[in-house]
Design a protein that fits this description.
2 copies of one chain form a homodimer. The first copy, chain A, has 232 residues and is an alpha+beta fold. Chain A is built from 11 helices and 11 strands. Chain A folds into 2 domains: 141 residues, Jelly Rolls (Sandwich), CATH 2.60.120; 82 residues, Winged helix-like DNA-binding domain superfamily/Winged helix DNA-binding domain (Arc Repressor Mutant, subunit A). In chain A, the strands form 3 sheets. Chain A has a 4-stranded antiparallel beta sheet with strand order 1-8-3-6. The first copy, chain A, has a 4-stranded antiparallel beta sheet with strand order 2-7-4-5. Chain A has a 3-stranded antiparallel beta sheet with strand order 9-11-10, covered by helices on one side. In chain A, helix 7 crosses helix 10 and helix 8 packs across helix 9. Chain A is elongated, with a radius of gyration of 19 Å. Chain A binds a DNA duplex (30 and 30 nucleotides) through helix 9.
Amino acid sequence: MLDSHHPDIRVLDLFANMEEENFQTLMRASYVQNFPPQIELITEGEPSDFLHIVISGSVELFSKWNGRETCVATIRPISSFILAATVKNAPYLMSARTLDKSRIVLIPSQNVRAIFDEDNNFARAIVLELAYCYRSSIRKTKDLKLRTSLERLANYLLRQQIRAGGDDEFNLQIEKRRLASYLGMTPENLSRAFKALKPYGVTVDGNRVMIRDQNDLEKFAKPNPLIDDRTT
Amino acid sequence: MLDSHHPDIRVLDLFANMEEENFQTLMRASYVQNFPPQIELITEGEPSDFLHIVISGSVELFSKWNGRETCVATIRPISSFILAATVKNAPYLMSARTLDKSRIVLIPSQNVRAIFDEDNNFARAIVLELAYCYRSSIRKTKDLKLRTSLERLANYLLRQQIRAGGDDEFNLQIEKRRLASYLGMTPENLSRAFKALKPYGVTVDGNRVMIRDQNDLEKFAKPNPLIDDRTT
DNA sequence: CGCAGCCTTGACAAATGTCAACAAACGTGG
DNA sequence: CCACGTTTGTTGACATTTGTCAAGGCTGCG
């Protein structure tokens, strides 16, 4: 396998402190593949054969039940996904599909578990990564249970603004129908929610969002670090 | 500190395989306390000073935002809680209060992190515990986003039935207002939801629940191991 | 006994979803 | 480059779900 992406992966928190030899073992065992958009990479319920790392493009984690589907997360470079299923050797709880043309590294779960048993620094890095994932998931639960869909959208926009460098104008990273699903609402409801935020200075044109007065929007959204902070 | 509970804690997956010496260090550093009901043990946003373990009684994890409050989990003996905040040395994302008179072990987070750095088996146990917590949280997200409140209640009852040994009659473990909050609905809505399940053979008297025909209820609830299974 | 908190019920309001229609954006093949 | 068909986004009308408020019954406890 071409190893040009090794340095990119090596600097991930997950791999940064592990033994070089173990890292090489993982890389030797892994595959790199390019996928077109809309390819289902994994399906919920199946055994976790590979730990996945997105090198470029983007991947959606989603889940279905009783004919309904919901977007749980969007993964962007460079990060891993479904680490928990890998270390527990348990079935995937979510499915994954590419959104764009994407380059993905597949590390056999078996090898990940083997090195996890051997490399203590790797095991520690996994702890921190999982703790982060868990806490992120708790934040999402709080967002869902404590806020209306309008409040979720408002806070999402404020988070995106921060991500875009604090600029008062930025582009949505995902299409609106996926955003709606991510926020736990229908596309129609999202459409109306954008309009409902107009009195707070939010205007939308395509996927371009403008926030005229951040304070005004914040007064409505009431962002809270214990829900919206994405760093700790 | 009285060490009569040490064996109970020692057998927890989290501590079962660590070095005896390290376990003793943790136990020596820790406190055991009895709390009356309705005591707020920790408050969201505060630094994570202690890893908590419930020896007896029960503890509710909850969170507030903008005047609203929601129940995120109920912890029963014998299990730990807020492990993620402890290992990340980050603020609690949830508050905790005793529901009953409860006996709690408090292990200083500092000590937990120190032993985590030293004891590889302990680090590995933490990985598995966090992976479990994370996956449980993903299940809850799916439950919330993919199901109506009536469906959530129906599946909750089926899970409780399993927990009660499959008997067609069992007691609710928490009061209804808390159950409502846990399921993401109001007490009034829960009251009506119970009635709405009557056509599927569910009858309720106080906190006693009878499920006349499990198949009937399952046909409505459509339980799914990727949401409702509590073992993997 | 009497108070306080929980649960239930009814009437109503707000939030959200559904369906249908249409417009706009996008991609593909000619 | 354009024409076409498909998908996405929007809007309106309406249905369903869920929440809110107020009242009353029940229960447990001092």
